[in-house]
Amino acid sequence: MSTPAPRKTDIGPPHYEQFLPEVIKKNYGKWKYHERPKPGVLLHVGHSGDKLWSVRAASARLMSIETLRLLADIADEFCDGHLRFTSRNNVEFLVVDESKVDPLIERLNKEGYPVGGTGPGITNIVHTQGWIHCHSAASDASGVVKSVMDELFPYYDGSKTLPAKLRIAFACCLNMCGAVHCSDIAILGVHRRAPVIKHDQLRGQCEIPSTVSACPTGAIRPTTVDGRETVEVIEEQCMFCANCYTVCPAMTLNDPVNDGLSIWVGGKVSNARSEPMFSKLAIPFLPNNPPRWPETVAAVKNIVEVYAKDARNYERVGEWIERIGWPKFFEMTEIEFTKYHIDDFKHAGETYKRSLHFRQK
Amino acid sequence: MSTPAPRKTDIGPPHYEQFLPEVIKKNYGKWKYHERPKPGVLLHVGHSGDKLWSVRAASARLMSIETLRLLADIADEFCDGHLRFTSRNNVEFLVVDESKVDPLIERLNKEGYPVGGTGPGITNIVHTQGWIHCHSAASDASGVVKSVMDELFPYYDGSKTLPAKLRIAFACCLNMCGAVHCSDIAILGVHRRAPVIKHDQLRGQCEIPSTVSACPTGAIRPTTVDGRETVEVIEEQCMFCANCYTVCPAMTLNDPVNDGLSIWVGGKVSNARSEPMFSKLAIPFLPNNPPRWPETVAAVKNIVEVYAKDARNYERVGEWIERIGWPKFFEMTEIEFTKYHIDDFKHAGETYKRSLHFRQK
Amino acid sequence: MAEKLRATPLLDELEKGPWPSFVTEMKKSAAKNPMANDQLGILEHSYRDKIGHWKHGGLVGVMGYGGGVIGRYSDLPEEYPECAEFHTIRVNQPAGWFYTSDVLRKLCDVWEKHGSGLTNMHGSTGDIILLGAKTEALEPVFSDLTEMGFDLGGSGSDVRTPSCCCGESRCEWACYDTMKFTHELTQHFQDELHRPAFPYKFKFKMAGCPNDCVASVARSDMSIIGTWRDNIQIDQKEVAAYVKNGLDIDADVTSRCPTGCIKWDGKALQIDNTNCVKCMHCINTMPKGLAPGKDRGATILLGAKAPIIGGALLASVLVPFYDMEDAEDIYELAEEIWDVWGEHGMNRERVGEFIQRIGLGNFLEQIGLEPEPEMVMHPRTNPYIFFELDEEG
Amino acid sequence: MAEKLRATPLLDELEKGPWPSFVTEMKKSAAKNPMANDQLGILEHSYRDKIGHWKHGGLVGVMGYGGGVIGRYSDLPEEYPECAEFHTIRVNQPAGWFYTSDVLRKLCDVWEKHGSGLTNMHGSTGDIILLGAKTEALEPVFSDLTEMGFDLGGSGSDVRTPSCCCGESRCEWACYDTMKFTHELTQHFQDELHRPAFPYKFKFKMAGCPNDCVASVARSDMSIIGTWRDNIQIDQKEVAAYVKNGLDIDADVTSRCPTGCIKWDGKALQIDNTNCVKCMHCINTMPKGLAPGKDRGATILLGAKAPIIGGALLASVLVPFYDMEDAEDIYELAEEIWDVWGEHGMNRERVGEFIQRIGLGNFLEQIGLEPEPEMVMHPRTNPYIFFELDEEG
Ligand code: SRM
Ligand code: SRM
Ligand code: SRM
Ligand code: SRM
Ligand code: SF4
Ligand code: SF4
Ligand code: SF4
Ligand code: SF4
Ligand code: SF4
Ligand code: SF4
Ligand code: SF4
Ligand code: SF4
User: Fold this and answer.
1) Of D311, D381, D383, which has the smallest distance from its Cβ to C382's Cβ?
2) What pLDDT is stored for residue A4 in this prediction?
């Protein structure tokens, strides 16, 4: 019986340096410029003259270790085992030998991890857990993302381009782990039914005062059911935020009929040209229709295509809409404008139009 | 003894038509264009070819009937008795005979009602009652306005011009009857001391619940003094809005030492080029210094002069500042930026800078 | 009767300088009128001790009216007995503030007879302000005024005196007849103007075009601003003449168009009218060359106000385009709004604050208008949608 | 051991199409791993009845750590017993997400041994996500991970795993060394990362330039974005080459500059750098011709977050320019902020909401920074100033 090794804690992540290829160590902080020689490939050139080709491949983000091992093997074959992941969950192979670029691309395409996602077009969708792992999800994440990316694939692999980068994000509930609040196009899972209260569970797992105070609209109040203390929800005051559910698992919002997806447009985070902007509501509700969510896919595609046709070079979706005006956006996309589009939350008044600066019809 | 005439009510204002000169009746709705032949004079030309010269003269707004009679006489002499007042309290004489324009101007100047206020420059200041008539006033209105206009007079009579119209407004308390919230430059009376409560008066004149609920910050609460019910103010929570005073006269805010003026800039109401904008805080406090408020006059003049030097043609103060950026405005005017400039009211967060779009120093 | 003027060493300073002096005005009245003379004294007193000397007004007014008079009492009645009562009378101005010398003189006569002789031409809302009357003078003033065809304006929680820019009477850009509309509206709502019955005040202001010379977008609960739907009228010859005469058309006009929809190619001006947002700038710079289109009407906006107590508001779009030929329908729209606001509005809650509180979407539903994207700067950014319960998916 | 795959007629549809299929990934694992196979089954179940089958997690984790594991239990434990417990382990990624094939394989080995074989590369915050472990496996995974040099990331009310763009390692625009800073920061705050002691979560994200490729301005409580103070570096020859090669420099570059401070006269590019707001656009369009200046540092912004519960926030400027040579001072700044927020923040109140509640001015005072106009879009528009009482005029 061997004695156990002393328990290591708080060691933090491994130092990145050990994973960097030589060319990066040498040119670290001394890159001069980059080019995009072909879709999915970035060429970075150092002041030293050194060159690095980054070949970007698609990923489902949800990956089996089988796949990770495959990627490791490919990296060994083409680039000394050096690869990285991007902030949008693509895989980048870091190649120093130009002659390996095309064979690498071919191999990746063959294995089903197609190359693309650079330049003005659509890259991987930032997304969340959905029915794979989260208790809060109003929809699945991976399935919607896969369905949308299949349809928009030509904008990923470079066979079609767009006026500018178009960033899509997905979040399966209002917590917005996919940070959809600042995306060119965002898909967001929404509940539309007030919490159904599991009174038995509530008694065991929740504090009544903290459940009551979790509700931002004051829709929850203490009550007694069958002579025992619990809470009730005034349905008209519920805006389906699920904050009560986060605090108390007995306040369940999931609902097979009323859950679904909403579509948001015009957000961005870069400072390029315009300041960062929030996404704004385009479509309040589309049904959950697994396995391929055709309504959602069609809605996103429609917006992409209208944008592709009408926007100028380097004009992100939000910049394009600001130029043409929201009325025109709704007209061109044939999306209905409803009372749900009009903000009625805390700073709602700040979104009302307070001038005559609009196009007359 | 004559029988009294039956009491007339709800007759409304007299019909304007009876006061219009012939040339207006004839060209009503059929004006073609206008010119500004000289400072203070507008020439309107009808499709008919008819011409109307409007000669605009200054007024203190506060006018004695002696002066009104004088103006009536002048109108009789030069334009068949036809005159009007403008939305900024200037007087306009409506002249059809071109040869009378110059003599009229001469006469008005002589009588002390100088001609000007048209085109890109400064016109009359919209203002309020101040110590002349209002119980709420944190400063006098007429005295400040007179002092400022004396100093800025060259921008009124056309001896100096500005890049664009510059509209000044004055209000003697936060009620803002002078609608200073959307002016190029605004002067606003402010209190800075929490209400002093006259407990005896309160008992007679005010309801305690409505006094308590008048306070937007919840600074007022019921209490007892000398065994009788009254209210108290938690001073740290008071933002000196005087809403309690409007509701209850015993909550007095007027204070000889702490009342004074604040300066606001960059508002506008026209839709020309940019949308209407609110005025923003430039200087939180300047002392009440009657009879000529030199600090306030100097502060306004400084802003006007910096603007005059730096702005482009047709650029209103707010448009100019938006172009150069607020940091530059504070730098150029040498006004100190303090924590008071940072909004902390309801929508404060909406005014924080949420991007890197600013000039680095 | 000649008065011995109160000594005013501080105020005397304000008789200097080129701008007309209100002190001179006060002295003109004070020379003949004891009330004005005491008012001069009390103002000097304020200048000395840096504080106002007026108290909250009581409930004063004329019989059968709930508004139109602002009561005012001084806190130094012993020292300045003649202005111990110093009420203001708000007199509804004629639309557009046009007068003849005759009618002005008649007004002066009434005011000489009953009051201080001091006026404001005009108050911020638009009224003729007769400044300083004793309580006992109110009925006589009223009776003399109505006799000569004038009536009181608003005060308190009523319709306030509507006002407007001169519009078609003297301006080539007016897109509807502001003065006619204002006069008729005022006549139509006499009862609402004189008898406060709302949660708070309600102001109408009418501007003939987007220049908004009456500041309606900032200062009225209902703001009606003229605009057009079709193409800006261009007289290319006149445009060319402006350029020839030195207008830097690129710097001063085309590059300042908020949507960049106007271009000058050296010879002719081209406007992409579908992208024009009716800002007026190009028209303002070349009044001979350009004019608003011919298909004219107005945008109706709602809810402007000063900051008390939730912060100031600009008005927001309620009806993007309204054909002012059917101007009468606006009465009904206003009444619809008053019904909803009257029923659900809180005391001292302006209509703009009310709309923010209940939400513009709900408000539209209650007054029976369809939501339109022109009403918002942009759709909501937060996901907190009150989906309706009967909408099962 | 080979598994008989759960039948997944609905999910099978998602193996079609060009985009990599997560279903294929799940089947790869499921073929070998019973836990992954049941997970496949439960997901098909969700696809059938359109509802998730996970319950709130309990308090699971590794000894001495308060975060890093998300507990998860299914509500169908009988039908899918192998994934009845299905916890997630958040593993702190190396800065910049760089790996070698070696280290990747080692990670796979650990996960093969103890878990479902499913991962997310990476989670939205930046962690390596190991998806699906039983409670009993947590300690062993942790011990194997630390053995190979990895540690857990954050969860709960702690510092969350910091992340950054690749910065100087692979980008010519990085204005500071994001990866070095991120690594050192992460090491420095190990205790804060592993032992939740804040009112709520606190995220750091580091971007090398205003393009913000890690979305820090939208997704981190403290966002540190590289920028510069001096002139943009211009290589006129390369600029001219872009134009020659077809770049429409007026339409695509100069007319898109937000302040219009860049001009092309047909031969040379002129930039009025005093008016450049560091937006990156011109540099982005001509990477060979332009580069950020040499006097580099970062802007520190505070307070971004998702909408729960007061609405989403973008971060706002806290330090307009910070010289990243003294990067260590940022630790102190962060600690100052945590002290104030820790003492006065409410439970589940992010720092951005906290600042809004107490006011940015007060917050600055408390952490000892001077107010600067760069921190606001514009000064206040409302007159409700809390003048301080000791400031007698
Ligand atoms: C690899 C990556 C950083 C990383 O450390 O992982 C990266 C890398 C580069 N970004 Fe980025 N960006 C990356 C995520 C982002 C994000 C974050 C996001 O999308 O969530 C943004 C902000 C997006 C937004 O505004 O919503 C982002 C906004 C930009 C921009 C600004 C684009 C714009 O016009 O708004 C540029 C400049 C450009 O494209 O010309 C840029 C430019 C670049 C350059 C050209 C920088 C360089 O010189 O190397 C790199 C290649 C861009 C390309 O793909 O065409 N990168 N870039 C990320 C790749 C994600 C992916 O797999 O597709
Ligand atoms: C007489 C008056 C209307 C009335 O019925 O009383 C009036 C009359 C004219 N205005 Fe005005 N405006 C009048 C108050 C206003 C106001 C209201 C205010 O200041 O409170 C505004 C909005 C100001 C703001 O945005 O804050 C106003 C914004 C304009 C504009 C837009 C200017 C801009 O660039 O923003 C124009 C167009 C122009 O000047 O080219 C304009 C243009 C005009 C024209 C040229 C219209 C015309 O064709 O007759 C008139 C002469 C202007 C001049 O004085 O140079 N008028 N004008 C008002 C005169 C006030 C005075 O005594 O000085
Ligand atoms: C006389 C006048 C100022 C002037 O010298 O011109 C005036 C004077 C008073 N206003 Fe005003 N307001 C006057 C136009 C305005 C305007 C401008 C306008 O109408 O275009 C505003 C801003 C626009 C608006 O309506 O919001 C205005 C916003 C206020 C407010 C704040 C209302 C709000 O919702 O924020 C109050 C406070 C209140 O209602 O309790 C107020 C209250 C008052 C009171 C009645 C004081 C009070 O607390 O009860 C003042 C009486 C002074 C006196 O002794 O005569 N006054 N008041 C204006 C009316 C003259 C007229 O009828 O023509
Ligand atoms: C795993 C992950 C999503 C993913 O698939 O990538 C995730 C998953 C969860 N997030 Fe998140 N968040 C994740 C990144 C984010 C992000 C994005 C980011 O960090 O850049 C955000 C938006 C940015 C922000 O922090 O505001 C985010 C905003 C939230 C919120 C809303 C917080 C707010 O203040 O508005 C919650 C709700 C909460 O905290 O109670 C939340 C709560 C949750 C919980 C713990 C569910 C809950 O109610 O307790 C989810 C657990 C899911 C599960 O079963 O694994 N998650 N969450 C991400 C973390 C992976 C990682 O460590 O790398
Ligand atoms: S967005 Fe909501 S449902 Fe999706 S992973 Fe985050 S907390 Fe869970
Ligand atoms: S979902 Fe949100 S609004 Fe509805 S009851 Fe729960 S906490 Fe309240
Ligand atoms: S602004 Fe204030 S002090 Fe001045 S008149 Fe109006 S209510 Fe009175
Ligand atoms: S002045 Fe305003 S904040 Fe102060 S006690 Fe009165 S109502 Fe409250
Ligand atoms: S608002 Fe328009 S129509 Fe009315 S006076 Fe001003 S410019 Fe003329
Ligand atoms: S009115 Fe304004 S928006 Fe329309 S073309 Fe002229 S400048 Fe442009
Ligand atoms: S944020 Fe800037 S420095 Fe970092 S990768 Fe993106 S472009 Fe390069
Ligand atoms: S970085 Fe942006 S702001 Fe600066 S010159 Fe280039 S385009 Fe203009």
Assistant:
1) D311
2) 59
Clarify whether residues C52 and C201 are in a common domain: no
- Least CA distance to D302: which residue of chain B? B354
Same domain, C267 and C307: no
A276: nearest CB among B275, B276, B355: B355
**Residue A275 in contact with partner chain B when CB distance is under 8 A:** yes
Q: For D254-313, give the DSSP string.
A: GGG-TT--EEE-SS-EEE-GGG-----HHHHH-TTTEE--SSEEEEEEE--B--TTT--B
Locate D27 and state its tokens: 């089947």
- Cα C291 versus chain centre, distance: 25
Residue C380 to residue A342, Cβ atoms within 8 A:
yes
The token pair that represents A58 in the structure block: 């698609």
Contacts of A285 in chain C (CB under 8 A): 387, 393
Pocket lining: D314 vs ligand 4, CB cutoff 6 Å: no
User: Is the same domain home to C184 and C218?
Assistant: yes
Domain boundary among C291, C311, C341: C291
Distance from the alpha carbon of residue B269 to the mean position of ligand 8, in angstroms: 29
DSSP for A255-319 reads -TTT-EEEEEE--B---SSSPPB--EEEEEEEE--TTT-HHHHHHHHHHHHHHHHHPPTT--HHH
* A276 contact residues in B (CB cutoff 8 A): 354-355
Candidates C49, C51, C86, C284, partner chain B, best to mutate (most B CBs within 10 A) = C51
Residue indicated by tokens 């002012």? C324
The pTM for the full model equals: 0.97
Q: In this complex, do D360 and B344 lie within 8 Å of one another by their Cβ atoms?
A: yes
Query: Counting atoms of ligand 8 from 1, which one is nearest the CA of B214?
Result: 7
Does residue C242 sit in the same domain as residue C221? Answer: no
Average pLDDT of each block of 10 consecutive residues along chain C (393 residues)?
86 98 98 97 98 89 96 96 97 98 98 98 98 97 97 97 98 98 98 97 98 98 98 98 97 97 96 98 98 98 95 98 92 98 96 97 97 98 89 48
Total domain count for chain D?
Answer: 3
Domain extent, residue C338, equals 163-228+297-375
Residue B128 Cβ inside 6 Å of ligand 7? The answer reads yes
**Which residues touch A190 (CB under 8 Å, ≥6 apart)?**
A138, A173, A174, A240, A259, A260, A261, A262, A284, A285, C383, C385, C387
Residue D103's CATH number: 3.30.70.2500
Count CB atoms within 10 A of the CB of residue C244: 8
Residue type, D133: A
Quick one: which of B255, B291, D104, B171 has its CA closest to C124? B171
Is C310 in the same domain as C286?
A: no
Looking at chain C, the number of H-run helices and the number of E-run strands are 14, 16
**Rounded CA gap, D104 and D119, in Å?**
12
C166 pocket-lining for ligand 2 (C-beta < 6 Å): yes
* Residue pointed to by tokens 């299929």: D21
Find the CB nearest D225 among B239, B324, B356. Answer: B356
Among D263, D291, D319, the domain boundary falls at: D291
Quick check: A239 contacting C, CB < 8 Å? yes
Interface ipTM: 0.97
